[in-house]
Recover the amino acids of this structure.
């Protein structure tokens, strides 16, 4: 008598699909949010900024100074927009933010270099945003060690930078060109699912209570689990549409490498989608109306996006923040997605990230079902 | 239906508490098959809570009994399959069409030959022409027809109606009641709550609930007789001053203006006579009348308040 029956479950599924079709705003949100985020994060965000405006104050016009300026010009990081010999002007440019860097070459630069006195070049940086200046400064360091090698030949060869005792070779795996999109676009999959899945389910169930249709539903023989699973199934399908949209964009627009198994990714996505839907159900049992449901979803969404390693490097956060991050499903899903797509991880490699996801799903689902039952009486 | 009870609804001592507030207090109720039973009482008197306990939505905190022969405490799933419940507020899906709503409910109850059942239901209630209209676009009267159709689609043996005619025009109300009487004639038992006295008079039997207590029940005649209320009407000039004077007299419990007449009622007939004699003059015409249902219920409610305080 208390068994789960397919016909009641299916009745709920069909009803949800009809309602989803009629509710244009929610439907637009399901497709619009992934597209908008892809555009914003995919095209707009770059953690490795290049072509930064740079001014040069060169008091020396000798060959070595020209070589240095030419080398900076060739690197992608600097765009020389101004040459000046006024210190007042360079300070003003920095202050106004018109340039990110000022390179000061002293007047006896070439001469002192030839004498082997290791002349100083002063690089002034607008370091208000450390992440904007950082990669360019690293690039300059690399330039400085080799830039004069072509000029310092014959007897001058002894002025070259002596090699250190150890030869460090750097091999950047998985994303050697340091392309931000390779990191951001797969991560977006998790962010979009977190944002839409939690809000949509929280709304779908709160709406039934707010409009009074829940009472009617409860007076029929339909079981709570049939209502819940019947409501979840359509949204799992929506989640998969979003996953597919993002994967298509990742492949065709952003050329993100996809080394690992896509079926594996689709399989794992089910648990992540379900974990977020379960979270939405839990919120819906706490919220009194749809507005509250949305507000609660934001309480979940904000730490997810900030502490999961999507926006900032996870290991750069203090320990307490890493602990919070570890409790969030997005953190683990990000590692799984990036692992499968960029590193070609298989089931064995993702297992350490999969079980926390399953644990979260189990806990959220049991709280959701338990609280949902309580709302009946 | 089990043989142990001849009644469709047979409960004793049904009690429901929310926190420390007793919302339904030890109610006994027996309703035989095919009867239209009217449930009256002020807002917040526990009518809706009582109905929710009958249809398996809430579990009573105390008492026992059966609904359609199933135990109200343990067999709620079975009760839900055979009871039709129409909620106070329209509670079908406004973004679904009439047909989609009926089809949804028919699927939930797993009705065999669903399409035919939905079509029958549409035609019987005259909704066939509008079947593709969204429920949210319907007027109050049509929404009510849809809700009735949906609550009948699984052919229940008991229909629970919670203020079904609130906000419905008089013509639609009359049609609705004709429909209810037709259903009762076919053997359906109906329990209905209402605030309208003319509707109460169309019920076979009535009960009056206030502050969770069942104050009176029986046929219309029985309710009027057991109330033992005496009512006089008076016409003439200066009724407002007269009403004020009457209200100061002992034994006068209600003074209500109906257009150009006052209705004056009290439970103690002798005391009421004395009170009237004190203010009587040749300008006014006094007539003893039969107490109306409304007079009786207002009197009941005032007494209940006294007990409660």
């Amino acid at each position: 008598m208390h068994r789960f029956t397919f016909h009641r479950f299916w009745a709920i599924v069909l009803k949800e699909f009809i309602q989803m079709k009629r509710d244009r705003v929610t439907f637009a949100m399901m497709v619009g949010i992934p597209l908008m985020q892809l555009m914003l994060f995919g095209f707009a965000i770059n953690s490795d900024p290049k072509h930064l405006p740079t001014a040069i104050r060169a008091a020396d016009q000798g060959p070595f100074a020209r070589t240095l300026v030419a080398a900076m010009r060739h690197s992608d990081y600097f765009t020389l927009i101004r040459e000046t010999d006024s210190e007042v002007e360079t300070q003003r440019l920095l202050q106004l933010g018109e340039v990110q860097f000022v390179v000061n070459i002293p007047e006896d630069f070439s001469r002192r270099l030839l004498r082997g006195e290791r002349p100083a070049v002063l690089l002034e940086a607008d370091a208000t945003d450390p992440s904007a200046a950082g990669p360019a400064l690293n690039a300059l360091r690399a330039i400085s060690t080799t830039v004069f090698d072509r000029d310092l030949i014959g007897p001058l060869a002894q002025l070259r930078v002596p090699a250190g005792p150890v030869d460090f070779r750097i091999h950047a795996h998985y994303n050697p060109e340091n392309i931000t999109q390779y990191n951001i676009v797969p991560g977006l999959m998790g962010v979009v699912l977190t944002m839409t899945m939690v809000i949509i389910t929280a709304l779908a169930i709160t709406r039934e209570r707010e409009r009074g249709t829940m009472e009617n539903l409860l007076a029929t023989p339909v079981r709570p689990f049939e209502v819940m699973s019947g409501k979840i199934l359509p949204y799992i399908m929506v989640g998969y549409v979003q996953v597919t949209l993002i994967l298509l964009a990742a492949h065709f627009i952003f050329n993100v490498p996809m080394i690992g198994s896509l079926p594996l990714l689709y399989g794992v996505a089910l648990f992540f989608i379900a974990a977020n839907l379960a979270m939405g159900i839990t919120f819906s049992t706490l919220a009194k109306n749809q507005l509250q449901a949305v507000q609660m979803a934001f309480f979940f969404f904000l730490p997810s996006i900030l502490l999961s390693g999507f926006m900032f490097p996870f290991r750069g956060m203090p320990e307490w923040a890493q602990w919070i991050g570890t409790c969030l499903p997005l953190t683990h899903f990000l590692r799984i997605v990036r692992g499968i797509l960029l590193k070609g991880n298989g089931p064995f490699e993702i297992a350490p990230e999969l079980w926390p996801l399953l644990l979260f799903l189990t806990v959220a689902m049991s709280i959701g079902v338990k609280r949902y039952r309580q709302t009946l009486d | 239906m089990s043989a142990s009870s001849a009644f469709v609804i047979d409960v004793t001592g049904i009690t429901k508490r929310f926190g420390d507030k007793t919302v339904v207090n030890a109610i006994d109720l027996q309703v035989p098959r095919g009867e239209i039973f009217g449930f009256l009482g002020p807002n917040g008197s526990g009518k809706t809570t009582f109905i929710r306990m009958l249809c398996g939505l809430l579990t009573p905190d105390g008492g026992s009994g059966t609904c359609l022969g199933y135990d109200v405490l343990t067999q709620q799933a079975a009760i839900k399959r055979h009871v039709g419940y129409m909620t106070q507020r329209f509670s079908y899906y406004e973004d679904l069409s009439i047909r989609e709503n009926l089809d949804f409910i028919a699927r939930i109850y797993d009705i065999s030959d669903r399409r035919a059942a939905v079509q029958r239901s549409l035609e019987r209630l005259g909704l066939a022409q509008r079947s593709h209209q969204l429920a949210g676009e319907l007027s109050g009267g049509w929404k009510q027809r849809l809700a009735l159709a949906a609550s009948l689609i699984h052919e229940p043996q008991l229909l629970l109606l919670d203020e079904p005619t609130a906000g419905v025009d008089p013509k639609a109300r009359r049609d609705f009641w004709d429909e209810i009487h037709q259903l009762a004639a076919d053997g359906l038992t109906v329990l209905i709550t209402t605030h309208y006295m003319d509707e109460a008079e169309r019920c076979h039997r009535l009960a009056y609930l206030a502050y969770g207590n069942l104050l009176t029940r029986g046929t219309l005649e029985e309710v009027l007789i057991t109330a033992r209320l005496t009512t006089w009407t008076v016409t003439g000039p200066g009724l407002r001053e007269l009403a004020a004077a009457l209200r100061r007299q002992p034994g006068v419990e209600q003074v209500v203006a109906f257009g150009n007449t006052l209705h004056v009622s009290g439970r103690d007939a002798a005391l009421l006579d004395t009170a009237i004699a004190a203010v009587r003059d040749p300008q006014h015409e006094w007539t003893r009348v039969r107490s109306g249902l409304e007079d009786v219920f207002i009197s009941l409610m005032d007494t209940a308040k006294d007990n409660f305080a």
Summary: Residues 235 and 290 of chain B are 16 Å apart (CA to CA).
